[in-house]
Amino acid sequence: MRKFAISFNLLFPILLAALLFIPYTLNFLAHAMVGEKQFPPIIMMKLPVESTAVTLPAEVVQFTPFDITLQLDSDALAKRINDIIAKFPQGVAMQGISDKVLSHMQAEIAGNGFHIDNPGPQAQLISTQGGTLWSWKITPLSPSRQTLALRLHITAIDHGQESQQIVDLAEIQTFVQKNPTEWIKRYGIWLLAAGLLIVVSWRRIRQPKN
Question: Is the Cβ–Cβ distance between 70 and 138 less than 8 Å?
């Protein structure tokens, strides 16, 4: 009986390709059979601000950039927070704030599964009659249910000393629709290269030795 000697160098790419593609294939089939319920973006405010202060599209698609804007009257918000804190009992705080808040604020948006063009805290650069307007361009990289967090970097005065604090302004839950066409454009070349590697490796294994 003829014996085949398989080199580990030839077998390794096949094993690696299997490890990469089998989990992806199983995950794809599971989502295709079960499916996920889509929903419009949900904005949950964590400070005394109307949810209409945050604007974003009704539908979010993977790899498709979109804009999120935040229009906030920082003077009115600081006054509202200070009025609420003044009514708190001694020792009670709002997200760690227990004393006066100044109106100068910076805003930040963050979230896993997204590419954000201008990450980190952004200064109050654009002012309108309705307050300050912040804007971010965001590209969703992962499909399915995703979460974005809007945060404010504020200056608080505690016992006469200024301190910088970060507070949660809002949580945005959104469903990112899959974009198979763009996914193939981005990663199809790697799938093709892996497939060619498997074919070449298999042919070399099957080739009889002299």
Answer: no
Residue 77 inside a domain? The answer is yes
Residue with tokens 């109106």: 103
DSSP conformational letter for 26 = H
pLDDT in tens, 74-101: 889 999 999 988 888 887 888 888 888 9
Q: What phi and psi, each to the nearest 5 degrees, are found at residue 17?
A: -60, -40
At 53 the three-state DSSP class reads helix
> 45: number of CA atoms within 13 Å, CB side?
12
Q: Write the single-letter amino acid at 170.
A: A
Residue with tokens 């060619």: 196
pLDDT at 124: 77
- Asked if residue 72 belongs to a domain, the reply is yes
The angle at the Cα of 95, spanning 93 to 97, to the nearest 5 degrees, equals 50
